[in-house]
Amino acid sequence: MSMQPLLINGEFRAAANPTGSYHSTNPMSGEDLPWSFPYSEWDDIEEVLQAAAGAVSELRGAPRQLLADFLDTYADRIEQRTDALVEAAHLETGLPAPTRLQSIELPRTTDQLRQAAAAVRARSWTQATIDTAANIRSCYGPLEGAVVVFGPNNFPFAFNGAAGGDFAAAIAAGSPVIAKAHSSHSRTSQLLAEAALEAIGITGAPKGLVQLIYRFKPEYGYDLVADHRVAAVGFTGSRSGGMRLKEVADRRGMPIYLEMSSINPILILPGALSERSQDIAEEFFTSCTMGTGQFCTNPGLVMTMAGAEAETFVEQSAALFDDGAAGVLLNRGVSEGMDESIRILTRNGAEVVAGGAAADAPGYFYENTLLTVSGEQFLANPQDMQTEAFGPSSLVILAKDADQMAQIIQCFEGNLTGCLYTDSAGADDELYDRLAPQLRAKVGRLLNDKMPTGVAVTPAMNHGGPFPATGHPGFTSVGIPASIRRFAALYSYDNVRQHRLPPELQDRNPTGKMWRLIDQQWTQDDIGA
User: Fold this and answer.
1) I need a surface site. Which of 68, 93, 203, 267 has the fewest CB within 10 A?
2) What architecture does CATH give domain 49-260+476-484?
């Protein structure tokens, strides 16, 4: 069977000197799917880099409207391929086709693209800032290079390197994207790239605006990040992989935005446990097993105070975990990672109270898994006890009292989210006031009485957090316009004549509606109006 082509400089072409091939796999059966993809040699990567550099040059003189038109057209072309995309993603990931891929994730993906297009047209994301007395003006503009996006395994559309949030933000900021397809959904990525190429042709965007490559040697990934034609990197994946790429990027002084690992602690305070233990157990089970637990915001750790009510909560939760059907994992590596994580947790004192192993079924199915550990055992080795089990699994910490809860929070690593469940009558208020500030410092998004699963695409969202959840706590990968500014440079102009300034910084407001900070006042007015 012939290998699938790469998207390089506006055309799909065969890999120049492939060193081998791999197949997409159906995780529901463990069997190979019919599509074969190449392992590229450096020849392919070099062509991609050259084409991206050409696209950077073309974009310097292109109107911003071009990028908005491309993003909108791309969203339209994706929707025209809905059936094929959903079918391919379902076969490659095992994720539910109608309830997840078609109804939720694909619409979210096209919505992100259209939000990015709207931001390009509105231009307020550039944060134009003008000091009329000093005649110094600044705004955000495009980087001088391509953005490489390494997409994750768990979101074949919404975080795909060729269509997801990092992609949309980088294009909106004005950079071409080199997309690294994830092996768990290479065919899906290829279909998205076909839609992107159509959008390039329709809008007249640079041919190298979007390019797609598959697998290559790990060292080529480091060389790609180190190349001077790359201006920034977006990465979602394992902590080990992200940190190796970060070392290379840091040596260059190049920005790299990492989303790596998070266990998203849930604190259930005593009043809430007394008031609605069963309801919280059901919310917890639903959140933990949604998507077979393969969400970056999966509640992988729960803490409450030991006692009879905590024991009841564990029993209620364990019953739900036991009764729930085993879910399919994305690939063999995720299943093996679950095994290893559970071994680490149990070796350090955790006890399995539900599940704990791969299901006896074809493919990569795994039992819903619940573990418990005492506060003392957690504190004896907090690093290993925070091992992320990426799947339908969570660890319940039974702390002896409020002081120990506070001590445990101080040991938490950085996370994307954290939540406190409290009672409705105010009995937990004092403890909330004590613990919430400590948890606030450990997470990017703080929730109250709500499980963290799911990330709303809204300007107020922070999908980021302290290390190791991400590589930098000041940025979000979801939420426009903030996500766009990750892939932008701040340009300042001192005493530059009006006609030589970017439109965003001239006295006349280029859209009539763009927000600008003029002499420390946000306004949509022209200067001198």
Assistant:
1) 203
2) 3-Layer(aba) Sandwich (3.40)
Give strand pairing partners of 366: 327, 358
- Here the tokens at position 167 are 């992609």
Cα(529)–Cα(527) distance, rounded to whole angstroms? 6
Mean pLDDT of 289-317: 97
Token reading at 200: 């390039």
Coil, strand or helix: which one is 88?
A: helix
Tell me the C-alpha distance between 488 and 211, whole Å: 20
- Kindly tell me if the per-residue pLDDT of 1 is higher than 80: no
pLDDT surpasses 70 at 495: yes
Q: Which of 259, 283, 388, 413 is catalytic?
A: 259
CB 168 within 8 A of CB 42: no
Mean pLDDT in residue range 111-124? 98
Q: Is 259 a catalytic residue?
A: yes
pLDDT tens digit sequence for 226-248: 999 999 999 999 999 999 999 99
Domain with CATH 3.40.605.10 in the chain: 49-260+476-484
Q: How far apart are CA 131 and CA 516, in angstroms?
A: 11
* Residue 208 near residue 52 (C-beta atoms within 8 A): yes
Catalytic option among 47, 139, 194, 296:
296
What tens digit of pLDDT does each residue of 262-287 get? 999 999 999 999 999 999 999 999 99
pLDDT at 454 over 90: no
What's the mean per-residue pLDDT of the chain? Answer: 97
With CA atoms as reference, report the closest residue to 220 among 245, 240, 243.
245
296 has catalytic annotation: yes
